[in-house]
């Protein structure tokens, strides 16, 4: 029983790891500030400019509403159609990347890799590429949103498919269902609600994305930023911003309520 | 044993189904009616062929040019914008996180206002913020850093505040009982509980910011986006190919590293 008496005060863990991490972060920050020419001096020099811009943004030019309402509706249309395209294309992708649907690793790893690849490309880049192909207008924007939301919906859905209950799958196999029946009656009822919820979620993201796609000429409200900022009409800019925020918040609210009802 | 009766088919709400169906149909009619169908440009096929061939035969010489303005420097710039922007927002959002946390303020409405403010910042598109900062501090990476730093407050503040809402008050009560000052309670009881979550969310936001930083250049806020949009405008598709490849490789590597760190922390 000597051991109990010989208990010492535990040694404090070495702090070197923390110091090292701290120095590493400082070096990273210093390097980044150097690379981007960010200094406090520049920030302070920019301050008067900031206030003058903010000053010109208030009050917003309410009369400009009439000019942008059409573009705003276009933006929502683009988001609706883009999400629909993405939702349809995502279904086969989701099935082919779920490990309990397709047993072969040779199928689902490449498909997942493709999905990851799609998700690394920002939607604005996709839109810029499609503008080069199809010309200016909402069409390239719709395609860009479609491809972008395919990546999101397919990933979330395949994870939902992998999480389903095995029971119905086994009983469908036991009664001799073919592959289509198997998916229709044992997979679809289990993931349908999740799928719809993910489609709505991606619609929310797409509305936000569609609002800026116009910056590269892909239609929607974004085109008006270029137009008004170019002429330094900040009061109109703030009208556009307020309108966009309002629409996004309303759509978010409706979509969130619908999703809560689903799950 | 009574004869087994067939189970009755569950009655579905037919009215509700029809309402949803009609609403969706109307939505699509409305959406499709607004899309101009002037057909594709006749050059579309040609250009897509050029793009595909350009992307599959990237301009490897562009990776490093001794005189500057090459892929590696562009990517480094992008990385630096993302790092600095993320750090600024991680630092600035801490007070907002405590403001928006339900368990930190006595009055419920106070936290509600904080939450609304954060969701407002979240909704404000970062590219629009970048456009405004370009007008304020001039075009370049600094505008991008400021835009990311300000925009990320919205999301990080929300995630941080959820972390703060989940803390256990036991340790802070124990410290108060031993006579610790408020700052000491914060440092020794609250901070150790929320720090892993904070770091993990910051890394997650860093992944998102890296993607955003790679497109900020399109509007002139620094990073790899600027050479990319120039290459696109001059139809130099092999250069577009190498830049896209560079972005994909960088994002993938950073995702892997950040994911590994996040797994280790939590």
From TrEMBL, chain A:
The keyword Transmembrane applies. One of its GO terms (molecular function) is ABC-type phosphonate transporter activity. Residues 72-255 form the ABC transmembrane type-1 domain. The chain crosses the membrane at residues 76-96, 182-201, 207-225, 237-255. It comes from the Bacteria. The keyword Transport applies. It is found in: Cell membrane. It is a multi-pass membrane protein. CDD domains: TM_PBP2. Keywords: Cell membrane, Membrane, Transmembrane, Transmembrane helix, Transport. PROSITE patterns: ABC_TM1. GO terms for cellular component: plasma membrane. It holds the Pfam family BPD_transp_1. Belongs to the binding-protein-dependent transport system permease family. This is Phosphonate transport system permease protein. It comes from Sediminibacillus halophilus.
TrEMBL record, chain B:
It comes from the Bacteria. The keyword Zinc does not apply. One of its GO terms (molecular function) is ABC-type phosphonate transporter activity. It is found in: Cell envelope; Cell membrane; Membrane. The chain crosses the membrane at residues 14-31, 79-101, 185-204, 210-230, 242-261. The keyword Transmembrane helix applies. Coiled coil: none annotated. Keywords: Membrane, Transmembrane, Transmembrane helix, Transport. GO terms for cellular component: cell envelope; plasma membrane. Residues 75-258 form the ABC transmembrane type-1 domain. It is a multi-pass membrane protein. Belongs to the binding-protein-dependent transport system permease family. This is Phosphonate transport system permease protein. It comes from Sediminibacillus halophilus.
């Amino acid at each position: 029983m000597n051991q109990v008496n010989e208990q010492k005060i535990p040694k404090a863990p070495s702090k070197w790891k923390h110091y090292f991490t701290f120095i590493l972060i400082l070096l990273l920050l210093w390097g980044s500030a150097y690379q981007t020419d960010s200094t406090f001096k520049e920030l302070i020099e920019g301050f008067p400019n900031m206030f003058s811009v903010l000053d010109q943004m208030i009050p917003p030019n309410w009369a400009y509403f009439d000019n942008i309402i059409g573009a705003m509706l276009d933006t929502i249309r683009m988001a609706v159609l883009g999400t629909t395209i993405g939702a349809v294309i995502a279904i086969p992708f989701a099935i082919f990347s779920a490990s309990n649907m397709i047993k072969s690793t040779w199928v689902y790893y490449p498909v997942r890799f493709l999905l990851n690849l799609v998700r690394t490309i920002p939607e604005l880049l996709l839109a810029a590429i499609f503008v080069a192909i199809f010309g200016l207008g909402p069409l390239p924007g719709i395609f860009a949103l479609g491809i972008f939301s395919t990546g999101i919906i397919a990933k979330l859905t395949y994870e939902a498919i992998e999480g389903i209950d095995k029971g119905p799958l086994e009983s469908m196999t036991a009664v001799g269902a073919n592959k289509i029946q198997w998916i229709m009656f044992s997979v679809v009822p289990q993931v349908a609600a999740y799928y719809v919820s993910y489609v709505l979620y991606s619609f929310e993201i797409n509305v936000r994305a569609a609002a800026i796609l116009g910056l590269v000429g892909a239609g929607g409200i974004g085109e008006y930023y270029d137009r008004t900022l170019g002429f330094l009409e900040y009061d109109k800019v703030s009208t556009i911003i307020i309108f966009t925020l309002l629409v996004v918040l309303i759509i978010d609210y409706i979509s969130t309520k619908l999703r809560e009802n689903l799950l | 044993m009574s004869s087994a009766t067939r189970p009755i088919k569950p009655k579905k709400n037919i009215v509700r189904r029809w309402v949803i169906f009609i609403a969706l149909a109307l939505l699509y009619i409305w959406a499709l009616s607004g899309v101009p169908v002037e057909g594709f440009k006749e050059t579309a096929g040609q250009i897509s062929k050029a793009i595909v061939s350009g992307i599959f035969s990237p301009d490897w010489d562009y990776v490093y040019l001794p005189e500057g303005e090459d892929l590696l420097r562009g990517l480094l710039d992008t990385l630096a914008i993302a790092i600095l922007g993320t750090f600024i927002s991680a630092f600035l959002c801490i007070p907002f996180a405590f403001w928006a946390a339900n368990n930190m303020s006595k009055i419920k409405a106070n936290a509600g206002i904080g939450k609304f403010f954060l969701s407002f910042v979240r909704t404000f598109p970062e590219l629009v913020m970048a456009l405004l900062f370009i007008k304020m501090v001039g075009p370049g990476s600094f505008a991008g850093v400021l835009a990311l730093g300000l925009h990320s407050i919205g999301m990080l503040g929300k995630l941080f505040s959820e972390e703060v809402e989940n803390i256990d008050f036991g340790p802070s009560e124990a410290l108060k009982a031993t006579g610790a000052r408020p700052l000491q309670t914060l440092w020794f009881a609250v901070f150790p509980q929320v720090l892993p979550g904070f770091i993990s969310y910051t890394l997650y936001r860093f992944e998102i910011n890296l993607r955003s930083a790679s497109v900020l250049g399109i509007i002139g806020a620094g990073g790899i986006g600027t050479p990319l949009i120039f290459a696109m405008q001059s139809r130099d598709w092999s250069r577009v190919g190498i830049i896209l490849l560079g972005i994909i490789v960088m994002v993938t590597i950073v995702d892997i590293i950040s994911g590994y760190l996040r797994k280790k922390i939590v």
